[in-house]
Design goal:
The chain has 117 residues and is mainly β. The protein contains 1 helix and 9 strands; from the N terminus they run βαββββββββ. The chain has one domain. The strands form 2 sheets. Strands 1, 2, 5, 7 and 8 form a 5-stranded antiparallel β-sheet that branches. It has a 4-stranded antiparallel β-sheet with strand order 4-3-6-9, with no helix packed on it. The longest helix is centred in the N-terminal third of the chain and has 5 residues. The chain is globular, with a radius of gyration of 14 Å.
């Protein structure tokens, strides 16, 4: 069974007020049960913000900011495999994946770090 859940935004007004990009950490899961832990560091208005990402059977986090700097995700329990995606764009329609991991079935850490130009 293949699942993809991407959390929504609180209000429509958040789109109108923000000039920042839509940033998303998405996990595609193949299987029934999984627990994940990790973190995301994103940049907003020049400041780094770190968010802890811990979840059981829910697979998406959204932020508003300039870009995602770094993400680490690891399976801590469950029978499912997962694949990590990092998305960035002006809105949900133009969001593009900037990273896609391989399918991970073990407790191996998946790590993304933005390449700075």
């Amino acid at each position: 069974m293949l699942f993809c859940y991407l959390c929504g935004f609180n209000t429509e007004n958040s789109f109108a007020q923000s000039k920042n990009n839509l940033l998303a950490v998405v996990v595609m899961v193949q299987g029934k049960n999984i627990s994940l832990k990790g973190y995301c560091i994103y940049v907003k208005d020049g400041k780094e913000i770190r968010e802890e990402l811990t979840t059981d059977n829910t697979w998406g986090w959204n932020f508003r900011g300039d870009y995602i700097k770094e993400v680490e995700m690891q399976k801590i329990s469950g029978d499912a495999a997962f694949q990590l995606y990092i998305m960035e764009g002006k809105d949900a329609a133009t969001g593009k994946p900037v990273f896609e991991s391989e399918l991970v079935n073990s407790g191996k850490q998946v790590f993304y770090k933005k390449k700075m130009k």
